[in-house]
């Protein structure tokens, strides 16, 4: 969604000359920033820098200013900022919308129940009056007929009210089930990396914390695998970011298809991926990592527009196992050391923490 829509700029609305010029200025600034940073003008990146140009999000502006001041922005950095500042807001607004719809439906159910209770109370009062009339000594055939007709009419009104309540409850049940599905979809999307469709960093952090807590509580095996695509920048610089995105999706798909059960595959950041592996010892995790490494290397990358062969993708792996007293941070630190060692030793290999030497620790 746009960061700012000038007043009157809704669908079918009119925009003043001043509002138009202001919005156009934001748009031009966003495009200039994209060119300056050599970031592809994909819609999400344009929205990110349009929001920056408006200045309505001080936290975002501070982050972008620091990036331009301290280094060169990249598409990976822009994607992380978009996910943090804009995509999360979109998910929150969708969740809020579902919650409002749920609240409206609950109010409608309460109203239907109140109406049914009022009708039931009136019916009960009619029955009490009829009971008194039936006990009267002056009841004749004519009065009995009138009384029966009145009771029949009240019974029909009660039946109609009950039928209406049943219909409202059935419709509400269907609506609430649909709302629940929508809410589940939003929650799932909020935890997925939009490019690779594996879990994002937030989901990884939450999953690793749960896995560490469970391993600590039950004494189970648990491993962490970190993966870094070798020479990823070369793909971007040589063939463009779309090819780089293809590489990221390929690695994510290979990782996801090789894990199972309660394992978690996630994009850790940029060209790095991670896998949380509950109920897996170090030996099993290293074997799994090597299988994934071979599966990635076996795939040859093609440029879709020309079917040109772009070579094979390789990746380096670091694997660490949970030890008593570990926190997510200490476990990540050891896995990262292993990953660094794999890179340092020539890439396209797996290093488990038992394979680390003193030189690896010093170098890391």
TrEMBL record:
Q: Which Pfam families match?
A: GGDEF
Q: What is its EC number?
A: 2.7.7.65
* Domain named GGDEF: residues: 220-355
- What Gene Ontology biological process does one annotation of this record name? negative regulation of bacterial-type flagellum-dependent cell motility
What is the main EC category here? transferase
Q: Which residues form a coiled coil?
A: 162-189
Q: Does the keyword Ligase apply?
A: no
Q: Which domain of life is it from?
A: Bacteria
Write out the entry's keywords from A to Z. Answer: Coiled coil
Reactions performed catalytically = 2 GTP = 3',3'-c-di-GMP + 2 diphosphate
Q: InterPro entries recorded for this chain?
A: Diguanylate_Cyclase, GGDEF_dom, Nucleotide_cyclase, Rev_trsase/Diguanyl_cyclase
Asked if the record carries the keyword Coiled coil, the reply is yes
Task: Return the GO cellular component terms, semicolon-separated.
Answer: plasma membrane
* GO molecular function per UniProt: diguanylate cyclase activity
This protein is called diguanylate cyclase
Protein species of origin: Devosia insulae DS-56
